[in-house]
Amino acid sequence: MTGSPKKSDRLQQPRQKDCELNPDTRKHNFQEVSLGYTPEMARLEAHRCLQCKKPKCVMGCPVHVRIPEFVQHIADGEFLEAARVIKETNSLPAVTGRVCPQEDQCEKHCVIGLKSEPIAIGKLERFAADYERTHGKGEPVEVAPPTGKKVAIIGSGPAGLSAAGDLAKLGHEVVIFEALHQAGGVLFYGIPEFRLPKPIVESELDYLKRLGVEIKVNYVIGQIKSLDELMQEDGFDAVFIGTGAGLPYFLGIPGENYNGVYSANEFLTRVNLMHAWDFPHFDTPIHPHKTLAVIGGGNTAMDAARTAMRLPHTERVILIYRRGRDEMPARQEEVLHAEAEGIEFRFLSSPKEITGENGWVNGVVCQPMELGEADASGRRRPVAVEGSETRIPVDAVIIALGSGVNPLIAKSADDLKTDSKGHIELADPEINLTQKRGVFAGGDIVTGAATVISAMGAGKRAALGIHDYLMRSEGTR
Amino acid sequence: MSKILEKTEPAPGVFRYVIEAGEIAHKARPGQFVIIRIDEHGERIPLTIADCLLEQNAIVLFVQPVGKTSIQLSLMIAGDTILDLAGPLGNPTEIRRFGTVALVGGGFGIAALYPIARELTRGGNRVITLLGARTESRLLLRQEMESVSAQVHISTDDGSCGLHGNVTDALSFLIQSGEKPDRVIAIGPLIMMEKIAELTRPLNIKTLVSMNPIMIDGTGMCGACRVQVAGEMKFACVDGPEFDGHEVDFDTVINRLGAYKKEEKESSEEFEDHILGPCSLGERAP
Ligand SMILES: Cc1cc2nc3c(=O)[nH]c(=O)nc-3n(C[C@H](O)[C@H](O)[C@H](O)COP(=O)(O)OP(=O)(O)OC[C@H]3O[C@@H](n4cnc5c(N)ncnc54)[C@H](O)[C@@H]3O)c2cc1C
Ligand SMILES: Cc1cc2nc3c(=O)[nH]c(=O)nc-3n(C[C@H](O)[C@H](O)[C@H](O)COP(=O)(O)OP(=O)(O)OC[C@H]3O[C@@H](n4cnc5c(N)ncnc54)[C@H](O)[C@@H]3O)c2cc1C
Ligand code: SF4
Ligand code: SF4
Ligand code: FES
Questions:
Q1: Do B226 and A257 touch (CB under 8 A)?
Q2: pLDDT value of position A376
Q3: What's the CA gap between A122 and A100, in Å, rounded?
Q4: C-alpha–C-alpha distance, residues B187 and B185, integer Å
Q5: Chain B partners of A285 at a C-beta cutoff of 8 Å?
Q6: From 3.30.750.24, 3.40.50.80, 3.10.310.10, 3.30.870.10, which CATH number describes the B100-210 domain?
Q7: Atom of ligand 5 nearest to the CA of B238
């Protein structure tokens, strides 16, 4: 594949389909489902890009990755260059290439999408990042001379990791405090292996360590130390809070305390973080459920359903969502994968009660719904169709309704302002500065449950804000 | 990595550990707990901080082996290390001047009560401690409790020491004898805490109980530790572990605690077979 095909030819080429594991085998294992592109496929796909002068795709990306530029490098076979371009604005391309909701972001705006299928920007991003990880000499570790300033990062999700990386490169001493025994946030305990292999997250953590970042696990800030203690006693000049939105919501319907009812967080944590699928080799158990209901329609619900399907005793997984297929907020690819793996979908069904026997769940009673007027979010609001409830017999229910924010840090700092739902309020959203001096925040703790790329973008913005604050506040404190 | 500095067996089947814990030792308040994970394959389990030894930068834990992890811990000795130790978690016990406070403890709950008794006494309260055990040799911390309480009443199931009966009877006698505590704090087996709460409810004595549901993260992230309190869902790790005993729905807590009985048995049996050889733990099982 040499030279550039004519524009009309490019429009005619179909989007390259990546290779995937066969659904019948993959639903019994935790291997990554999508195998990504080969170099040949990546170049073919990259050649479809029109190299727009005013690229709309870039506007759709929350961190404005210079898409045409990196895609051109791939087309030219300069894969390491492509990765370098992406990394200028995106610290975790191997992750975002896999988990961004591309169809709502970059790819949604790609002009080719008007006539045919948009450029597979996410898959190309993933390809470049994977290529660099396996073929590169490792990203050069270039760190500015030490500034003598110390920054504490609380939470090691995408927000914290990207802030830490950028600050370390600028020459600051960076310490990450993570509550769990493993760093990575949702990337580790939430998003499953078959969608985001953990060695990718590990390699990002290794890179931070090479930059000199110290990662302290088992540190629950707010409990072991307050923000003031970090700054006044431990000598941190600034703090970044990236503690995410980890507090699971329940439905508030009868029966939620039966055994066999889980939050998606508990279910996924048992399996991903604690390796319950490998019980008793690992000590944390998960029950041998046969029929599981998953309630919700987002990425968390898809992950829970597909994880449930992969456990050895599972026979059926039923996903219950109160709106319709088109209203599901999950990434399209996950919905397609879930369907292929045999997850059953019950749309327009709203759980009213969880039934049980001898303390264990034995069913979900659902209320059928229909779609009414559009609500503020523009999605049509589900309304109950009276008098036609059905009971689905199941032996486990996983509730995946999203999550609120964890109160631990705010509880330990009165001068940190939060809104009525507990989200940290920013004094200056441009640099993610909170109302408290020297304290910055970003990611889900500020926005509520959002996306990996938006959390990462917030971490990068905050890093610049912190750098500026530290260099300006030279010697004042 | 945290090193076990000391291990003793103060009562048959109950182990006391002094564990290196640096900052936790200086920060923990009575009523708080830690979560430990022994090794890479380990489960995360919560244990109450029974004391802080500042000079040694260490905390004291009491462990009653009931399943895989606690049995594994019971086989570790001074010099061994624990991979992960996080804390202090949960809210500290409220320490104020209440007047007379009755502390009711059973089993390893007594260990959790010790620092509470000490702080309440220091805070100017008259502390009456009621300790229960199956038999005298299983009583924990009797002398220590005497040194930080105005009175200590003992009850044993077999009558080998103190009152022949359980701690609920003991509290009942105490109240009949004319004492009216301003507050009761009960820590021990769920059944005991439920009975105590039933006893004090008609008397309108504020009664705190400490919930010990199954936990995973201990930071409010998983919801495994949920308990129903006054009709509302609470997470014991961030909203508790102490709750108003008159408002806790004990039935669901008891049910949820039994959730993994079968798997836990499997896990500890496997552990015994592979690591200990069959049956070597028979005499130790509680
Ligand atoms: C199952 C699941 C699937 C998802 N799938 C997608 C997807 O496909 N695409 C996508 O874009 N987004 C997805 N998301 C959302 C995305 O993962 C989050 O928006 C993102 O991880 C938020 O990043 P964060 O850095 O703000 O916080 P998190 O990733 O939540 O990390 C916060 C970290 O802070 C730690 N912490 C919390 N409190 C404290 C404390 N007091 N002290 C110390 N540490 C603390 C936590 O343990 C955690 O490690 C998914 C989320 C879930 C749960
Ligand atoms: C806040 C808190 C403080 C605690 N403090 C202590 C302490 O100081 N000392 C101590 O020995 N234990 C304490 N526990 C209980 C301890 O965490 C459990 O005994 C431990 O998790 C059991 O793990 P395992 O693998 O050994 O047993 P498993 O194999 O997990 O369980 C064996 C049996 O123990 C029961 N069990 C499981 N979890 C608990 C639990 N949380 N509480 C009571 N019974 C349980 C189960 O019903 C099961 O049948 C505390 C629990 C909580 C929540
Ligand atoms: S970061 Fe996400 S939105 Fe931006 S270009 Fe990459 S895949 Fe698209
Ligand atoms: S909008 Fe589409 S075609 Fe245009 S530069 Fe972006 S990816 Fe290429
Ligand atoms: S232990 Fe997970 S929320 Fe309490």
A1: yes
A2: 78
A3: 7
A4: 7
A5: 260, 263-264, 266-267
A6: 3.40.50.80
A7: 4
The number of residues in chain A equals 477
Give the binding-site residues of ligand 4, using a 6 Å CB cut-off.
Answer: A 49-52, 55-57, 67-68, 110-112, 119, 121
Tell me yes or no: is domain A150-246+405-475 CATH 3.40.190.10. no
Which of B221, B252, B253 best tests the A interface by mutation, with the highest count of A CBs <10 A? B221
Measuring from atom 38 of ligand 1, which residue has the nearest CA? A243
Confidence of residue B157 (pLDDT cuts 50, 70, 90): confident
CA nearest neighbour of A364 among A376, A387, A337, A346? A346
Q: What are phi and psi of A109, to 5 degrees?
A: -95, -5
Name the residue ranges covered by the structural domains of chain A.
7-134, 150-246+405-475, 248-402
pLDDT given for residue A383 in this prediction: 86
Q: What is the share, in percent, of chain A residues with pLDDT greater than 70? A: 96
Its ipTM equals: 0.90
- Can you read off the two tokens belonging to residue A165? 């990386």
Output the pLDDT for position B264. Answer: 61
Task: Name the CATH architecture for the domain at B2-89.
Answer: Beta Barrel (2.40)
Q: Is the predicted pLDDT of residue A191 greater than 80, yes or no?
A: yes
The CATH architecture assigned to A7-134 reads Orthogonal Bundle (1.10)
Instruction: Kindly report, residue by residue over A333-390, the tens digit of the pLDDT.
Output: 899 999 999 999 999 999 999 999 988 999 999 999 888 888 777 778 888 888 788 9
* pTM, full prediction: 0.91
The overall average pLDDT reported for chain A is 91
Please give the Cα distance from A311 to B263 (Å, whole number): 15
CB B267 within 8 A of CB A283: yes
Q: How far is B153 from chain A (nearest CA, A)?
A: 35
Under an 8 A CB cutoff, do B89 and A223 touch?
yes
In sign, the C-alpha dihedral spanning A331, A335, A341, A347 is positive
Q: How confident is the model at residue A46 (pLDDT cuts 50, 70, 90)?
A: very high
Q: If pLDDT is split at 50, 70 and 90, which confidence band does A7 have?
A: low
What's the CA gap between A369 and B1, in Å, rounded?
53
